[in-house]
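Fold this sequence, please.
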Amino acid sequence: MDKTRIISLPTGAMHEMCYIVKDESTGLGAVVDPGGDSADDGKRLILSCCEREGVRVAAILLTHAHFDHIMSLEALRDATGAPVYIHGYDAESLVNPELSYMSQFAGIDTPCRPAEHIIDEGDKIEIGETIIEVLHTPGHTPGSVIYKIDRVLLTGDTLFAGSIGRCDLYGGDELAMSDTLRRIKRLAEQWNVRERDVKLYPGHGSSTTLSRELDNNIYLR
């Protein structure tokens, strides 16, 4: 991770987190989950941070297609020209403001445009010299993903500090979430997190580590 930096950016009243993955060798970056209280507010926060940190936005990555994680997507996309990446199972929700809850919770009926790139399990996204791996983690939504960069996970609304994402919204699936959590436990063992931990950056709230969640998160016991 010496060549990559994760910049955490709270963007809205729902405590949603946007992350900027900066490739230090090139200055290129990926914006993960561009939220905000409004499209303009979110765009302004994100672009100001990118300017301050010397980041040129090369990609916009979505962990899933709920409104609080895409509020400033179109404004940021227009400002940067960066392509959007999303899992295929959430692609329909992205372009449907009812399925993304944009119309119900934000009062916005204008759909987002389709993503330029449809991603799936095992795909790798290159941002400069930084490699971002896609882990498909259904449960919160059918197309939820975690982005893995070395020993860092950007977990979206799959896994939080002390909790997990809800499964009672459109496409949510408790059985799929249970399978996802079992998989995370298996991966933690493969990654030997007790010897060398993995940092977690969730879609809401504070960062944590995988070993801490294994010890304290009741959903991973």
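The chain has a mean pLDDT of 97. The chain is about 25% helix and 30% strand.
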